[in-house]
Amino acid sequence: MSILIPILVLTGVGVVAGVALAYFSRVFYVPEDPRVDRLEEILPGANCGACGFAGCRDYAKGLVAKNGDVPPCPVGGKAVAEKIAEILGVAVADVEDQVALVRCAGTRDRATTRGTMVGVRDCAGAALLGSPKSCRFGCIGFGDCVGVCPTKAITVYGGGLAVVDPDLCIGCGLCVSKCPVDCIGMVPRDRRVHVLCNSRDPALVTRAACKVGCIACNLCTKKDPAFVVASNVATFTGVTCDPEVRFACPNDVIVHTDHTSVLAFVESEAARADYEAEKAVFKEKEKAARAAARPAREPKNAGEQP
Ligand code: SF4
Ligand code: SF4
Ligand code: SF4
Prior knowledge:
Layout (H helix, E strand, L loop, with lengths): L3 H24 L7 H8 L13 H10 L11 H12 L9 E5 L20 H6 L15 H5 L5 E3 L5 E3 L9 H5 L5 E5 L4 E3 L7 H7 L9 H5 L3 E4 L2 E4 L17 E3 L5 H6 L1 H25 L13
Antiparallel strand pairs: 1-4, 2-3, 5-8, 6-7
Bound molecules: iron/sulfur cluster (3 copies).
């Protein structure tokens, strides 16, 4: 008998609460704008939060509430922006299809270190203590970015560098904010040329820290104005360039992805050997062209009046 009373009381409370909830949910029901469902359908469904909302459905609600006046979905790119504009009847948001790029080619054999870090296994902690690399701007390689990537597009390879697979990257940008040395940048998906260096140190410091650092020598900018040097480091700002421009770089830090993937450029000895061989041919060609352009020297004393 003593057990029956609490059971009956709890059941009664449950029934009353259930009826009250059902009643109030009917009375206070606010119908949702049907465009939310349509928008959710066309969003990528990555639920990565790169738009600043908790997920794709939240973003859809935000779009409806603000009539499209929210940051664009970086994952969906132009195609999704066009569909959003169509559903909401607003102008298409200006959004570029982007991928992440780790701007560092300083593998273990190319970059010098300040020593071995004991007991620290994450980039944030290592950066706080001063990077184990001599270059404080280079990829530390403990993979903090790997853990946040929703599509597993980033891998830290044997050379100790993180490399992004552009085919897997959806452009959410979550890795960018995770990197404590800011060596990940978002670049247009169709860009074929990259300067794989992030060092903003002066040339002498960069040269001492890494064999493949950009020393801001401007040789590339003289070949193609789409290269821009700022804060001691070059960036390519166009889509593509003459593949031979990369051979102008004295430190071999320009990759042309029509010829070599970033991964091969950074990790593959065979790809590096091919690059060296092509560069040697290019240099010979350049030397021959210079020689041909030089005016033939007059024989000594030729033209002298007796
Ligand atoms: S890119 Fe940045 S976060 Fe990723 S491994 Fe390198 S230093 Fe760490
Ligand atoms: S690499 Fe991963 S985390 Fe970085 S932008 Fe691409 S999908 Fe997002
Ligand atoms: S040529 Fe190479 S080292 Fe010189 S500014 Fe360009 S990328 Fe940097």
